[in-house]
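Re: the 257-residue chain
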Amino acid sequence: MPNFAANLTLMFNEVPFLDRFKLAKDCGFNAVEFLFPYDFSAAEVAEKLHKSGQTLALFNLPPGDWSAGDKGMAAIPGREQEFQDTVGVALEYARAFKSKTVHMMAGIIPGAVGVEAAFEAYVTNYQYCADAFVDDGIDVIIEPLNTRDVPGYMISKNSSAHSVIAATSRPNVGLQFDFYHVQIMGGDLAIQFETYMDITKHVQIAGVPERFEPNVGEINYPYLFDLMDRVGYDGYVGCEYKPQNGTEAGLGWMPGR
């Protein structure tokens, strides 16, 4: 059975963020993930992880000004120093959390920036970030985001992410394979998962098209869970979905419940 991690940004948000760890643990999640912990000190969040006995599967580098529409900046020329500053902040948090995987967001590319310039900035920043985390044994992964939810994002398909990972050429880089985004961008989920299995270091799931629980919508997740076992994927599966009617009420999709 996959190693599920509750996404505490979207799940258990019936209570304040720092109270979600215990709720998730009580519901059987021994691992959690979230987007951005930076509204709290690293020590505060680390204490919650320690008390609940949970592993942190993943969190994101600071994205820039999220409220203004920023979705990262790694692929945006001219923001290199700002990006490097976020790397230092994220490394401090990762060390406090004993986290082994972080997600580096690419950003929405301004219309005046060409594809080649964005790609060059992306790879250079990715190398910088990977080098900063490597001595701590931390992987830095990237995730394609679909063009319906995030128009203009630098990468929207696994093939593009593969090109960036290959060009970056660092031992601690890899792919975040999100079945929700992949399905919206063309599907062929099982074949794509097997194709990119060698670079996949984290998985996320949600129902399509509404991003509800995994048993709601057009994806056959039981088949995909069996596939993960068959091909030997042993990383975490982040549950990054929006509960329809309360988190606990919607957990019937989990195997064994």
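The first strand starts at residue 3 and ends at 7.
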